[in-house]
């Protein structure tokens, strides 16, 4: 198999360097998308353009799905799944948890994933069946943590109605766990779970470009990743935690009907 991971990492590092060099200023154009809280900057678009150019220069004919540019059609069974900035709101405010996320899917399976967190100088990588790393450090998620002692990260979507439901759900989860974190980037949250910085992560309404790369980092670090009631991870629901905690948190979440909006 071609060295997808190395190519994805090179491209994610180049995009991250560009974003760090051109950090948003007062003159950076900011537009809204699905709601007033859903923002996109010219740097999201510039990052995705750079990533698309580099992928197609190295692998003409591959398909690409990106948050800002949509789906690039093609015949290839190789598809690149790209979030040019995951955590745009953090990026805008100068907060460090934003990432360039690039995953490679072959025949419908994610085989390589890179999450570059430039402002922290951290690059997470994973290859299917070969493990997950933060730089040179092999990752293993926390195991044996009961729900009552679990540090759980989550996030909120951009629609006001969905947020209202997510607020109700998190209000029920909070008294049953150690604490809640809302980092502001799905990819960084999931990699944080892989690295043991939190014990579990869940969110309703994240997209493939948010979790494709980080999901592989989490599973290669020993996490279970899925949706609710036996369904695979999808935009409907994403949950990752070590086996045991996964089931405990899953059952609590199901009882709260978090997909009801
Ligand atoms: C968002 C972030 C955020 C999550 C949202 C995502 P974006 O991605 O991952 O943490 O809560 O659901 O849409 O828009 O910053 O790429
Ligand atoms: Ca976005
Ligand atoms: Ca995202
Ligand atoms: Ca994004």
From TrEMBL:
The keyword Lipid metabolism does not apply. CDD domains: IMPase (cd01639). Its EC number is 3.1.3.25. GO terms for biological process: inositol metabolic process; phosphatidylinositol phosphate biosynthetic process; signal transduction. Keywords: Hydrolase, Magnesium, Metal-binding. It catalyses: L-histidinol phosphate + H2O = L-histidinol + phosphate; a myo-inositol phosphate + H2O = myo-inositol + phosphate. It is an enzyme of class 3 (hydrolase). Its cofactor is Mg(2+). Mg(2+) binds at residues 67, 83, 85-86, 210. Pathway: Amino-acid biosynthesis; L-histidine biosynthesis; L-histidine from 5-phospho-alpha-D-ribose 1-diphosphate: step 8/9. SUPFAM superfamilies: Carbohydrate phosphatase. The keyword Hydrolase applies. Transmembrane segments: none annotated. InterPro entries: IMPase, Inositol_monoP_metal-BS, Inositol_monophosphatase-like, Inositol_monophosphatase_CS. It holds the Pfam family Inositol_P. Belongs to the inositol monophosphatase superfamily. This is Inositol-1-monophosphatase. It comes from Nonomuraea solani. The lineage of its organism: Bacteria, Bacillati, Actinomycetota, Actinomycetes, Streptosporangiales.
């Amino acid at each position: 198999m071609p060295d997808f991971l190395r190519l994805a990492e090179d491209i994610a590092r180049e995009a991250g360097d560009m974003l760090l060099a051109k950090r948003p200023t007062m003159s950076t154009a900011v537009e809204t998308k699905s709601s007033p809280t859903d923002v996109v900057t010219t740097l999201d678009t510039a990052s995705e353009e750079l990533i698309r150019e580099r992928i197609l220069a190295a692998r003409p004919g591959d398909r690409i799905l990106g948050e800002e540019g949509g789906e690039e059609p093609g015949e290839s069974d190789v598809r690149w799944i790209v979030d040019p900035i995951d955590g745009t709101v953090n990026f805008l405010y100068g907060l460090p948890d934003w990432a360039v996320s690039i995953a490679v899917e072959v025949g419908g399976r994610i085989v390589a994933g890179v999450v570059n967190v430039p402002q922290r100088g951290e690059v997470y990588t994973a290859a299917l069946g070969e493990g997950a790393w933060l730089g040179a450090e092999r990752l293993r998620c926390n195991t044996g943590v009961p729900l009552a002692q679990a540090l759980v990260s989550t996030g909120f979507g951009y629609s006001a109605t969905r947020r209202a439901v997510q607020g109700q759900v998190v209000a029920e989860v909070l008294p049953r766990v150690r604490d809640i974190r809302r980092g502001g980037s799905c990819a960084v949250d999931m990699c944080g779970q892989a690295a043991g910085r939190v014990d579990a992560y869940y969110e309703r309404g994240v997209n493939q470009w948010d979790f494709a790369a980080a999901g592989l980092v989490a599973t290669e670090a020993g996490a279970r990743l899925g949706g609710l009631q036996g369904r695979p991870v999808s935009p409907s629901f994403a949950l990752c935690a070590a086996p045991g905690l996964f089931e405990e948190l899953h059952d609590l979440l199901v009882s709260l009907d978090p997909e009801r909006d």
